[in-house]
Amino acid sequence: MIAPNIILVDDEKAVRDSTAQSLMLAGYEVETFSSAAEALHKITLEFEGVIISDIRMPEMDGLEFLQRVLKIDRDLPVILISGHADVATAVAAIRKGGYDLLEKPFSSTQLVEVVKRAGEKRRLTLENRALKEALENQTRPGPRIIGQTPSIMNLRKMITRIANVNADVLVMGETGTGKELVARSIHEQSLRRDHNYVAINCAAIPASLLDSELFGHEAGAFTGAQGKRIGKFEHANGGTLFLDEIEGMPLLTQAPLLRVLQERKIERLGSNKLIPLDIRVIAATKVDLKGAAERAEFRQDLYYRLNVVTLEIPPLRARREDIPLLFQHFVLIAAARCETEVPPLNSQALHVLMGHDWPGNIRELRNIAERYVLLGEAYNFDLAVLMNAGDKLEGLSLTEQVACFEKTLLVQALNHHQGNTRAVMEALDLPRKTLTDKLKKYGLDREQFRE
C-alpha cells in the first residue's frame, strides 16, 4: 500500500520538526503547519491522507480544528496530540470524532503504528466511496458519461458536486464531445430531475423567431402571432434549460437573455406581466467565448454571467484510453437496437480505433460503431476498410444506402441461419418470392452460407 500523505499541525516548532522527521523516516510525505487555520485550506473531500494535530494551540485549538475538519469530511481520520492529556480530554476528543489520542511524549513506533492504522482506514473509506459512486452511475436513470481517464473521472465528480448547486453552468467542448450529454447528466442528478429538461439550439433557429422561442408571446404580439405561446424559459420553469451553441445567439437576443439570468423573470413578447422563474440554465459552446467577447462577437457581461461554473469536455483524441470502452458500448447499443449478434472486435480493429484522430469526437465514434454493426460482416469486419467505405456511403443517394443496408441484413440473417431459407424468411418476415428476388438482386447464393 502507498503511504498516505500527512498534514501535521503543531505550534511548537521543535515538536513539529521531530514528529515530521519520524514520519518521513517511515516513508510518509508530511506537510507541516504552525496553525490550524493554515491547515484548513489544504483539506478537501478528496484528501487521501491522515491529519495529526496538537490540542493545545493558540487561536484555534485541536478540538475546534477537529470539528472544522469533520464538517469538510466526517470520515477523515484526525489524530490528536496532547502534552496535558487526561481521561476527560481523551473522552472529549473521541466523542467529537477524533480517530485517536497520543500523549506526549510518545515513541516513534507508537506514532507510526497509529498513523498506519488511520491511513488504512482512509484508504478503505475512499475505495468504498469510489465503488458507491460507480454503482450509482450504473443504476442512476438518464445518460451516463463513460470513461476511466482522469479528465473524465474529474468531470463526473464535478457534475455530481454541482448538480444541486443553484448556479448556471457553461459547458465547453469541440463538436461531438457530448455537451448535451453533460447537461442531461447534471439535470438527472439534480433535485430538478422531476421537472422539464428543455433544449434549444441557438444557432439553428432564425434570429427573427428566437425571441419568441425563448420568451414566448401573447396573441397579436407581432404579425402572425395568432395565439399565446409558452416559451422555452417558461416551459422549463422548475427544471433545466439547455442553450446549445450559445455562440450563435444574435447580439440583440443576448441583452434580454442577460436580464432574465440576472432577475429570474421573463416577459412574453407583447406582455407587461413579469413571470418569476425557478430555473437552471446550462449553456454550451464549441468556441472560446472569452475571445469572442473580446472581439465584440459576444456580449462580455453575458459571458461573465454564464461563466459561474465551467465544465470543459476533453476531445476524444485526448482520452484515447477510453476509445475501446466507448466503442464497445456503442456497438452493444447498436446490436440491441438491430436485434443482431454483437460483432467481434479484433486487435487490428482496436489498432485502427486508437490510431484515428476522431475530428468528430464521440459522435463520429458512435457512427462508426453503428456502421460496424450494420455493415461489418459485408467487409469482413475490417474497420479500416469500413471507415473508408462509410465515407463513400455518405455520397450515395438514399435509395443506394437503403439497398446497402438491406443487403447487409440479408447477409447477417443467412450467416446466422446457415443458409436456411425458411428460417431467414421467418426472421426477416419476408414471403418466399420476395426473399428469392432479393437474393437474386444482390447476387447472394444461400449455398455459400451453409456449413
From TrEMBL:
<feature type="domain" description="Sigma-54 factor interaction">
    <location>
        <begin position="145"/>
        <end position="374"/>
    </location>
</feature>
<dbReference type="InterPro" id="IPR011006">
    <property type="entry name" value="CheY-like_superfamily"/>
</dbReference>
<dbReference type="InterPro" id="IPR009057">
    <property type="entry name" value="Homeodomain-like_sf"/>
</dbReference>
<protein>
    <submittedName>
        <fullName>Sigma-54-dependent Fis family transcriptional regulator</fullName>
    </submittedName>
</protein>
<dbReference type="Pfam" id="PF25601">
    <property type="entry name" value="AAA_lid_14"/>
</dbReference>
<dbReference type="Pfam" id="PF02954">
    <property type="entry name" value="HTH_8"/>
</dbReference>
<keyword id="KW-0597">Phosphoprotein</keyword>
<keyword id="KW-0805">Transcription regulation</keyword>
<keyword id="KW-0547">Nucleotide-binding</keyword>
<dbReference type="Pfam" id="PF00158">
    <property type="entry name" value="Sigma54_activat"/>
</dbReference>
<keyword id="KW-0067">ATP-binding</keyword>
<dbReference type="InterPro" id="IPR027417">
    <property type="entry name" value="P-loop_NTPase"/>
</dbReference>
<dbReference type="InterPro" id="IPR002078">
    <property type="entry name" value="Sigma_54_int"/>
</dbReference>
<dbReference type="InterPro" id="IPR003593">
    <property type="entry name" value="AAA+_ATPase"/>
</dbReference>
<dbReference type="InterPro" id="IPR025943">
    <property type="entry name" value="Sigma_54_int_dom_ATP-bd_2"/>
</dbReference>
<dbReference type="InterPro" id="IPR001789">
    <property type="entry name" value="Sig_transdc_resp-reg_receiver"/>
</dbReference>
<dbReference type="InterPro" id="IPR058031">
    <property type="entry name" value="AAA_lid_NorR"/>
</dbReference>
<dbReference type="Pfam" id="PF00072">
    <property type="entry name" value="Response_reg"/>
</dbReference>
<dbReference type="InterPro" id="IPR025662">
    <property type="entry name" value="Sigma_54_int_dom_ATP-bd_1"/>
</dbReference>
<feature type="modified residue" description="4-aspartylphosphate">
    <location>
        <position position="54"/>
    </location>
</feature>
<keyword id="KW-0238">DNA-binding</keyword>
<dbReference type="InterPro" id="IPR002197">
    <property type="entry name" value="HTH_Fis"/>
</dbReference>
<keyword id="KW-0804">Transcription</keyword>
<dbReference type="InterPro" id="IPR025944">
    <property type="entry name" value="Sigma_54_int_dom_CS"/>
</dbReference>
<feature type="domain" description="Response regulatory">
    <location>
        <begin position="5"/>
        <end position="119"/>
    </location>
</feature>
